[in-house]
Specification:
171 residues; 5 helices; mainly alpha
């Protein structure tokens, strides 16, 4: 990706946000392939023993935190699943926007770096930050297979974000 093809940080961020949103949809396809159920991402599924208030999936907890900051109340229970999906796509768009600005400064294809970016989001977001913020259960309470599938989903996200951002920049 050359600097002159994606002039300006706003355009780069916009391209990255579009790419991050599309890559978030690619993650949904990945989860469907892995679990055989459309929309069956683990972060949207209740966890065994986690039916008490405050133990919703991480994306729903993220949506609650945002909604509480804006309105002072939680997302209504019947809207939590939709709010969780919206939070996932918003987070994907925001991470994509950051990627877009970074990618605009690169002179070469950034696909390998995009894959590493996906790994970084998985490690720093899913495995560390969300757990530290008590938005996700403790790592040892999550089956190893779910950690591995989430890792794979973030590889898809990183590769998709990088490839789509590069395509948007060259078009």
């Amino acid at each position: 990706m050359s600097r002159n093809k994606m002039a300006g940080p706003f355009r780069a961020a916009l391209a990255g946000a579009v790419a991050g949103t599309a890559a978030s949809a690619m993650m949904d396809v990945y989860w469907w392939a892995m679990q055989g159920v459309p929309g069956a991402r683990p972060e949207q599924q209740p966890r065994p023993g986690d039916h008490t208030p405050g133990h919703e999936p991480a994306t729903q907890n993220m949506a609650d935190a945002f909604w509480r900051a804006v309105t002072g109340s939680e997302v209504p229970r019947d809207k939590k699943a939709v709010a969780g999906v919206a939070a996932h796509y918003a987070f994907g768009a925001a991470c994509g926007a950051l990627w877009g600005v970074y990618a605009a400064m690169r002179r070469r294809s950034a696909l390998p770096e995009g894959v590493l970016y996906g790994v970084a989001i998985w490690l720093l977001g899913d495995e560390i930050a969300f757990r530290a913020a008590k938005m996700s259960p403790e790592a040892e309470k999550v089956p190893l297979s779910e950690h591995a599938q989430a890792f794979g989903a973030h590889l898809v996200y990183g590769a998709g974000t990088a490839a789509i951002t590069e395509r948007l920049a060259s078009g």
